[in-house]
Amino acid sequence: xxxxxxxxxxxxxxxxxxxxxxxxxxxxxxxxxxxxxxxxxxxxxxxxxxxxxxxxxxxxxxxxxxxxxxxxxxxxxxxxxxxxxxxxxxxxxxxxxxxxxxxxxxxxxxxxxxxxxxxxxxxxxxxxxxxxxxxxxxxxxxxxxxxxxxxxxxxxxxxxxxxxxxxxxxxxxxxxxxxxxxxxxxxxxxxxxxxxxxxxxxxxxxxxxxxxxxxxxxxxxxxxxxxxxxxxxxxxxxxxxxxxxxxxxxxxxxxxxxxxxxxxxxxxxxxxxxxxxxxxxxxxxxxxxxxxxxxxxxxxxxxxxxxxxxxxxxxxxxxxxxxxxxxxxxxxxxxxxxxxxxxxxxxxxxxxxxxxxxxxxxxxxxxxxxxxxxxxxxxxxxxxxxxxxxxxxxxxxxxxxxxxxxxxxxxxxxxxxxxxxxxxxxxxxxxxxxxxxxxxxxxxxxxxxxxxxxxxxxxxxxxxxxxxxxxxxxxxxxxxxxxxxxxxxxxxxxxxxxxxxxxxxxxxxxxxxxxxxxxxxxxxxxxxxxxxxxxxxxxxxxxxxxxxxxxxxxxxxxxxxxxxxxxxxxxxxxxxxxxxxxxxxxxxxxxxxxxxxxxxxxxxxxxxxxxxxxxxxxxxxxxxxxxxxxxxxxxxxxxxxxxxxxxxxxxxxxxxxxxxxxxxxxxxxxxxxxxxxxxxxxxxxxxxxxxxxxxxxxxxxxxxxxxxxxxxxxxxxxxxxxxxxxxxxxxxxxxxxxxxxxxxxxxxxxxxxx
Length: 754
Ligand code: ADP
Ligand code: MG
Prior knowledge:
Layout: H1 3-6, H2 8-11, H3 15-18, H4 20-30, H5 35-39, E1 45-47, E2 63-77, E3 84-91, E4 108-114, H6 117-122, E5 128-138, E6 141-145, E7 148-151, H7 163-168, E8 171-173, H8 182-195, H9 207-212, H10 218-226, H11 231-262, H12 275-282, H13 289-302, E9 309-314, H14 320-333, E10 337-341, H15 345-359, E11 363-364, E12 376-381, H16 387-399, E13 404-407, E14 421-426, H17 434-441, E15 449-454, H18 460-466, E16 471-475, E17 485-491, H19 498-511, E18 515-519, H20 540-544, H21 555-563, E19 573-576, H22 582-593, E20 599-602, E21 615-620, H23 628-635, E22 645-651, H24 658-668, H25 672-682, H26 685-690, H27 709-725, H28 733-743, H29 746-753
Parallel strand pairs: 4-6, 9-15, 9-16, 10-13, 10-14, 11-12, 12-13, 14-15, 17-22, 18-20, 18-21, 19-20, 21-22
Antiparallel strand pairs: 1-8, 2-3, 2-5, 3-4, 5-6, 5-7
The structure holds adenosine-5'-diphosphate and magnesium ion.
Magnesium ion (MG) binds near residues 321, 427, 455 and 609.
């Protein structure tokens, strides 16, 4: 039950405090109906009255609130219509705007009013005012039409205030709409601050934390954030609410973790003599120290009767698969089944092939039959398999014949069931959300053990936030004998001749007995790329807003082109992409793995996991179309078998183009952690949490995952402690209520309406 709703004040209908009319306006435009809801509608930023907003920075086509000084004003009657037109030129004093000639100059903006009698009277040259409206463009110049405005020099909201104190008061800027200006919201909130019983509001922060951090009490914090008398006021208020947000988030994760841990799972203890011991004996290499240590942790946790919930982070090529496979074998030895969930069909098929190869005689095909403790049936289950094969795979999963089931999202579908699912391994987690993890979990009779693997190193705070309900292990070394990868940016703008030089370079590699990947951003000449739903990542185009004006390299066009490329005469070339028939796809992959196909032209389907040791060169065409982590993942496909790898990032962009920064960053280091930091700097906040925080959760207001690492870390520690001592949060009702609201923001509105 939501205690905040039990809290009379926070859950109180707004009309009881601000009147029916205002409440109706707020509900209509902001969708907010309660006292708590409006109090938590924080200003986005604050303006300093003494300053003028830089007009050169105002965004086009957006609702803005800005402070400016009037330069000139003129009114004339319109020729074609009845009425008058008042043109006011306003400035931020940045350009040297002469009165009357301001439009089009830097630092000025033309503001037009139809029948603007008040504008004509009040907006005299020299006056300063707040303007609110949508910025549009007429000809070359930016402008505002019929904006709302309010003179700053006489503030009707604060009569009788001494002018100096007034001048120091920041102006809160609320996320406004076209119909409801920031200062209208401010006025309503001011009324609410007076009428609401702020001291009766619930405080999710335990008193010791408020004291330790010297936070302002919650009632004061609401006053300071909405009606600050100086910048220090809103900063103090934000500090407290930001921490509060972090605590609620971390407590939600800690509670989830505690709830998961309290569930009863089947212990899958290591067998004295089983598949795992046989596997270890036949392993052609020695485990790295990291692999051995993580293996030990997993073995112990799988043997417990509470479910393991663990995240395994590891650099590309650090050998996560063998760690996962050993865990799966332990579970199979103990009589359970294991499922491996991969983000794409190609990767699922690759895992299937390579796991069966690695298992060797320990793997048993469905066809060969014969039960026995000396082998395990590995089964592939994907959405595009022929119906008969898929039915058989489903049957094997349901009957328990299949010990290890490898698949894609298809494993999540309703008609897939398991006989006794003991362990779920999710590979390349950044593409699966919490909800999908839960769907898979629900397929086991008892909560299964869970191992999540991610190849993209994630900064600590993102891990704490997105995977905060999981324990974390890290593989931080690569297996010995790994050859280095050299990465070069190939700039065709400066060196057009390199366009053909690439193919001779590929030929050299192939003549030396090696293989080559060519990666293209598109499949054909008229599509948008090769992104299945599981692969949705922001692309470079999303990051730049740079719509493709030039024709990008596509798999079909490049295969066509290479046919006539003298340097590659006689070289077996094959295309690979998501739209190929699944059978053809696996055939193509098999032929490349067997070193029959020498050169593979593909989309990013090879981005994750594909493992062909003989491949030494990767050429990424129009590399600027890909994000940093994608490029890092892609090049991890070469240099795998002790042979040095080379990666060429080909781009037609001019040197110095912002998108080339990404390429330079990737070429400069192979340290995945450094790159992920760089990547996150170039991305926006929403993209970080966006994919994982699905399910209609409220977004963070004041907390920035990258900026506030410190806050998140402290809040996490507090949250762990609180939840550890009070798992049901019975002694922390306000915190529990805030968690419920965070997890289910619609609930409040729903209950109100109901
Ligand atoms: P990733 O962590 O990127 O998923 P993989 O599990 O695909 O990496 O492993 C990359 C390659 O390294 C595979 O070919 C695997 O067989 C090999 N490998 C894994 N562990 C070791 C090891 N300890 N010594 C040598 N090679 C290893
Ligand atoms: Mg992998």
